[in-house]
């Protein structure tokens, strides 16, 4: 029995509310169980120096957790003057995942920055950030298309992410904190809407796993991502 009472292959409740901020070109509040992340997309008519005069655009991301997004207050990273290694790793993951579904030549020489701010954490924050980040990206690109600033859609597919792991000896979908903190195996799966893999992060957290178990986790991830993509479609109608 999972602590939440969910079936082994059940996601937590999902909610994606689009256009939650006034100024960002694209935004949403994504809620997965008790994990809540605000994602915003900001458009800039410039690219990083290494892309100037190439005709290619860029998508990048920043990630952060508010001090009371967890059960005890965390110190703001700005107070220490530097980001933690975990933060840097996650925002790089978000950025490269989103670039996997973007035709950068169709985007043109402009940059879209996806900011993902965790306001409440209960496991799976990076997966929620990627899933919500795609919605913010999609909404921002829609504005470019509507304004005629670009002639073809640079977003080539849906993109979502979900965690899977082995908890109490059983492969489970979408780990919450209670499961994540004691799982024997933990993984994050990022997939396109077509089902093609973008990235898989898997590690043994005290127990090894077999190829058969890995296949079961992959099956769970495909099911979970298909449900997340359905939520994305409903949010951007």
UniProtKB/TrEMBL annotation:
<dbReference type="InterPro" id="IPR002381">
    <property type="entry name" value="RNase_PH_bac-type"/>
</dbReference>
<dbReference type="Pfam" id="PF03725">
    <property type="entry name" value="RNase_PH_C"/>
</dbReference>
<feature type="binding site">
    <location>
        <begin position="124"/>
        <end position="126"/>
    </location>
    <ligand>
        <name>phosphate</name>
    </ligand>
</feature>
<keyword id="KW-0819">tRNA processing</keyword>
<feature type="domain" description="Exoribonuclease phosphorolytic">
    <location>
        <begin position="157"/>
        <end position="224"/>
    </location>
</feature>
<protein>
    <recommendedName>
        <fullName>Ribonuclease PH</fullName>
        <ecNumber>2.7.7.56</ecNumber>
    </recommendedName>
</protein>
<feature type="binding site">
    <location>
        <position position="86"/>
    </location>
    <ligand>
        <name>phosphate</name>
    </ligand>
</feature>
<dbReference type="InterPro" id="IPR027408">
    <property type="entry name" value="PNPase/RNase_PH_dom_sf"/>
</dbReference>
<dbReference type="InterPro" id="IPR015847">
    <property type="entry name" value="ExoRNase_PH_dom2"/>
</dbReference>
<keyword id="KW-0548">Nucleotidyltransferase</keyword>
<dbReference type="InterPro" id="IPR018336">
    <property type="entry name" value="RNase_PH_CS"/>
</dbReference>
<feature type="domain" description="Exoribonuclease phosphorolytic">
    <location>
        <begin position="11"/>
        <end position="140"/>
    </location>
</feature>
<comment type="function">
    <text>Phosphorolytic 3'-5' exoribonuclease that plays an important role in tRNA 3'-end maturation. Removes nucleotide residues following the 3'-CCA terminus of tRNAs; can also add nucleotides to the ends of RNA molecules by using nucleoside diphosphates as substrates, but this may not be physiologically important. Probably plays a role in initiation of 16S rRNA degradation (leading to ribosome degradation) during starvation.</text>
</comment>
<keyword id="KW-0808">Transferase</keyword>
<keyword id="KW-0698">rRNA processing</keyword>
<keyword id="KW-0820">tRNA-binding</keyword>
<dbReference type="InterPro" id="IPR020568">
    <property type="entry name" value="Ribosomal_Su5_D2-typ_SF"/>
</dbReference>
<dbReference type="InterPro" id="IPR001247">
    <property type="entry name" value="ExoRNase_PH_dom1"/>
</dbReference>
<comment type="similarity">
    <text>Belongs to the RNase PH family.</text>
</comment>
<comment type="subunit">
    <text>Homohexameric ring arranged as a trimer of dimers.</text>
</comment>
<dbReference type="InterPro" id="IPR036345">
    <property type="entry name" value="ExoRNase_PH_dom2_sf"/>
</dbReference>
<dbReference type="InterPro" id="IPR050080">
    <property type="entry name" value="RNase_PH"/>
</dbReference>
<keyword id="KW-0694">RNA-binding</keyword>
<dbReference type="Pfam" id="PF01138">
    <property type="entry name" value="RNase_PH"/>
</dbReference>
């Amino acid at each position: 029995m999972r602590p939440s009472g969910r079936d082994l292959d059940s996601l937590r409740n999902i909610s994606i509310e689009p256009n939650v901020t006034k100024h960002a070109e694209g935004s949403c509040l994504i809620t997965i169980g008790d994990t809540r992340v605000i994602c915003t997309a900001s458009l800039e008519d410039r690219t990083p120096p290494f892309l100037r005069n190439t005709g290619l655009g860029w998508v990048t991301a920043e990630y952060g957790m508010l001090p009371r997004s967890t059960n005890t207050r965390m110190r703001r990273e700005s107070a220490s003057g530097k980001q933690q290694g975990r933060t840097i790793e996650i925002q790089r993951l978000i950025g490269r995942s989103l670039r996997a579904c973007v035709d950068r030549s169709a985007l043109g020489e402009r940059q879209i920055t996806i900011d993902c701010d965790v306001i409440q954490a209960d496991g799976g924050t990076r997966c929620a950030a990627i899933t919500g980040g795609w919605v913010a990206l999609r909404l921002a690109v829609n504005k470019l298309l509507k304004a005629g600033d670009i002639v073809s859609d640079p977003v080539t597919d849906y993109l979502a992410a979900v965690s899977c792991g082995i908890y109490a000896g059983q492969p489970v979908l979408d780990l919450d904190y209670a499961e994540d903190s004691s799982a024997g195996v933990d993984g994050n799966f990022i997939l396109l809407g077509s089902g093609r893999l973008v990235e898989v992060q898997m590690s043994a957290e005290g127990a090894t796993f077999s190829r058969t178990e890995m296949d079961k986790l992959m099956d769970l991830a495909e099911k979970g991502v298909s449900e997340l993509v359905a939520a994305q479609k409903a949010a951007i109608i």
